[in-house]
Amino acid sequence: MTVEDLVKLAHTALEDLKARAIVEIDVRGKTTVSDVMLIATGTSSRHIKSLADHVIEKAKQAGHMPLGIEGHGRSDWVLVDLGDVIVHIMTEESRDFYALEKLWQMEDGEAS
Length: 112
Prior knowledge:
Elements: H1 3-16, E1 20-26, E2 36-41, H2 45-61, E3 68-70, E4 77-81, E5 85-90, H3 92-98, H4 100-104
Parallel strand pairs: 2-5
Antiparallel strand pairs: 1-2, 3-4, 4-5
Helix pairs in contact: 1-2
């Protein structure tokens, strides 16, 4: 499965269950951990868990086993590692606090 296919699969899965403010960030050349990060907002801890479960289910149906899931028991942030694509699903408060978009969209050469 290509990176683009994984991004589309995860993005569609998030849209299926009404994730909010879905952002795709290309991090190639900025990290060796992944190529793309998807960041989405869930409206509650139950919504976040459902979104993560749906992304995992859709990936498995497509024959792609997730490499890991972090924070599944937490209520404010769940990470689904699809290898070349990492999906962050967060509450609005956690998303504002950690500001991942700002961190990863900084221009090369800017201090973090």
